[in-house]
Amino acid sequence: MKKIVVTGGLGFIGSHTVVELQNSGFEVIIIDNLSNSTISVLDGIVSITGQIPTFYNTDLKQKADVEAFFKGHNDIAGVIHFAASKAVGESVNEPLLYYENNINTLVYMLQNTTQLAHAPFIFSSSCTVYGEAKALPISETSPIQPALSPYGNTKQIGEEIISDVCKANTNFNAIALRYFNPIGSHESAKIGELPLGVPQNLVPFIMQTGAGIREQLSVFGDTYATQDGTCIRDYIHVVDLAKAHVIALKRLIDGENTTNYEVFNLGTGQGSSVLEVIKSFERVSNQSLNYKIVDKREGDVVAAYANTTKAKDVLKWTAQSSLDDAMRSAWKWQQQLK
């Protein structure tokens, strides 16, 4: 069994990817410092797959600890790097925290991964690298715009670092996956999105409002140039997203990549407005949601959705779940949290 390291493997996307890796026959080693996750997620993974991944509570900001880990594991067949801070608003207030956590940890992981014989690298990137795109849908060749937040900048810088490393090391192979908006949870409702504190993303806030934990959802603006005036995003089911990581990893392990650094958008190719997402929740939960329209929020992109042609043609991957499917799974997860 090939050993795959998943950093941030107890996080939202990481945990779902660990499940798909184990279901695909990989042995998984999780590294997570529990700064934005909880150890209980490990029980959920084991409950779904019947397999116990190796777990290290390691802070990747500690360079010596990263080196010690790799010294003890020179038989790793691949790395999927999720570990990063990801709250846009917090990054604006705490830029140095974001640069240290998102850039230093990536550098330390790359320094060690490149020393291994054949260990490809998958990077958790984001559609934030496109900023306010000039044309929709957004393809991989769309221009990279100036970042709208330190968080977005760390993803841009991260991609540049990996690209430079691949140029300097022709035997090193990497793929950056630019996600649009991951939502939903595993169908078992044993793992899902578990925001610590006040949710930063729309869907967890909807779920908590629907469950009575939050009094009301604020919709930031309804005068944008969209069909109903609210912002549009491309919401992708987290399990579809997780499966794409396994496909990308196998592509690199099997040597099917055409260059040693590739980039793919991962989305559904469809945009949904904030009000459409609320309506979807109301459909799957059979209840109305308490929300109000408030002022626009600084830095919000009006609309972003993916051109998914490249992932479809090259990875042979497409998102399978609808918005309602994803919202239904998120609601099932939210209900069992109570």
Structure, explained:
This protein is α/β, with parallel strands linked by helices and 338 residues long. It has two domains: 3-183 and 235-266, Rossmann fold; 202-233 and 269-337, Alpha-Beta Complex (UDP-galactose 4-epimerase, domain 1). It has eleven helices and 13 strands. The strands form four sheets. Strands 3-2-1-4-5-6-11 form a seven-stranded parallel sheet, with helices on both faces. A two-stranded parallel sheet has the order 7-10. Helix 1 links the parallel strand 1 and strand 2. The longest helix has 19 residues, at 95-113. The mean pLDDT is 96.
Structural topology:
Blueprint: E1 3-7, H1 12-23, E2 27-31, H2 40-49, E3 54-56, H3 63-72, E4 76-81, H4 88-93, H5 95-113, E5 121-126, H6 150-168, E6 174-179, E7 181-183, H7 202-210, E8 217-220, E9 232-233, E10 235-237, H8 238-253, E11 261-266, E12 272-273, H9 274-285, E13 291-294, H10 309-315, H11 323-337
Parallel strand pairs: 1-2, 1-4, 2-3, 4-5, 5-6, 6-11, 7-10, 8-13
Antiparallel strand pairs: 9-12
Helix pairs in contact: 1-2, 1-8, 3-5, 5-6, 7-9, 7-11, 9-11
Catalytic activity: UDP-alpha-D-glucose = UDP-alpha-D-galactose
Protein name: UDP-glucose 4-epimerase
Cofactor: NAD(+)
